[in-house]
């Protein structure tokens, strides 16, 4: 870890990526499918649903689609993959309920306690491509103690658009280096770093399930590398 005490004195806001970093999307979707549609391979279903996420966002970024909330992108992807899993017969109410599974994602075991510690010393907010309603519902259900919910929806741009990272600093009237992005994804951290933000990498080796462990090796370009949010709180003196 590089100079956590020095960082603790300069960083004011911690902005968190959410899907995969704060909440376990894969495990949560697998559990939803086991409950709602036990005949379906929940692991394959979760991965297929998530695989559609970047291509769908890319269509918005290229201008093929107008600004679209993640809830609506998730629904487009869901409607597309249902036939592959024998679920094309689901009615509208069932589809709408299943789509809101993303509002019901469970936090990683350290997330709530880690955020509560960090919140005592720092402003903690989301910086997610998820829309505000989704993130708020998720926080309410999971007990995530955000000071503020910031979303791509606020900036009308998806990460890694610089407008999102710079936007956090602008919202709080801070210099970029007073904001730290906390994420389990190196591409997200790279985008933040290019805009002058500090970066903390969080290991989430099981993001894609136990069968597909992630390489969580440290990379020197990140300011901090932490096993979880409790270790981040230790590093930042919270």
From TrEMBL:
Pfam families: Hydrolase (PF00702)
Principal EC category: hydrolase
Catalytic activity: an (S)-2-haloacid + H2O = a (2R)-2-hydroxycarboxylate + a halide anion + H(+)
Gene3D superfamilies tied to this protein: HAD superfamily/HAD-like (3.40.50.1000), Putative phosphatase, domain 2 (1.10.150.240)
GO molecular function, one term: (S)-2-haloacid dehalogenase activity
InterPro entries, per database record: 2-HAD, HAD-like_sf, HAD-SF_hydro_IA, HAD_sf, PGP-like_dom2, S-2-haloacid_dehalogenase
Keywords carried by this UniProt record: Hydrolase
Keyword Hydrolase among UniProt keywords: yes
EC id: 3.8.1.2
Annotated NCBIfam families: HAD-SF-IA-v2 (TIGR01493), HAD_type_II (TIGR01428)
Family statement drawn from the similarity comment of this UniProt entry: Belongs to the HAD-like hydrolase superfamily. S-2-haloalkanoic acid dehalogenase family.
Primary role: Catalyzes the hydrolytic dehalogenation of small (S)-2-haloalkanoic acids to yield the corresponding (R)-2-hydroxyalkanoic acids.
Name by which UniProt lists this protein: (S)-2-haloacid dehalogenase
């Amino acid at each position: 870890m590089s100079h956590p005490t020095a960082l603790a004195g300069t960083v004011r806001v911690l902005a968190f990526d959410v899907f995969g970093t704060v909440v376990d999307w894969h495990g949560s979707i697998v559990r939803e499918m086991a409950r709602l549609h036990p005949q379906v391979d929940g692991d394959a279903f979760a991965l297929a649903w998530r695989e559609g996420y970047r291509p769908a966002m890319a269509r918005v970024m290229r201008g093929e689609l107008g600004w679209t909330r993640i809830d609506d992108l998730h629904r487009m992807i869901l409607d597309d993959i249902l036939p592959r899993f024998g679920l094309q017969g689901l009615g509208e109410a069932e589809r709408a309920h299943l789509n809101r599974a993303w509002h019901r994602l469970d936090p990683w075991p350290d997330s709530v306690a880690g955020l509560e510690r960090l919140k005592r010393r720092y402003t903690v907010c989301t910086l997610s491509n998820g829309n505000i309603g989704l993130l708020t519902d998720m926080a309410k259900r999971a007990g995530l103690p955000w000071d503020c919910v910031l979303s791509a929806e606020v900036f009308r741009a998806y990460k890694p658009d610089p407008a999102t990272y710079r936007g956090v600093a602008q919202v709080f009237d801070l210099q970029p280096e007073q904001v730290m992005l906390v994420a389990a994804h190196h591409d997200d951290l790279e985008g933040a770093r290019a805009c002058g933000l500090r970066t903390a990498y969080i290991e989430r080796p099981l993001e894609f399930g136990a069968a597909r462990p992630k390489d969580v090796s440290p990379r020197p370009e990140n300011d901090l590398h932490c096993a979880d949010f409790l270790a981040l709180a230790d590093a930042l003196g919270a």
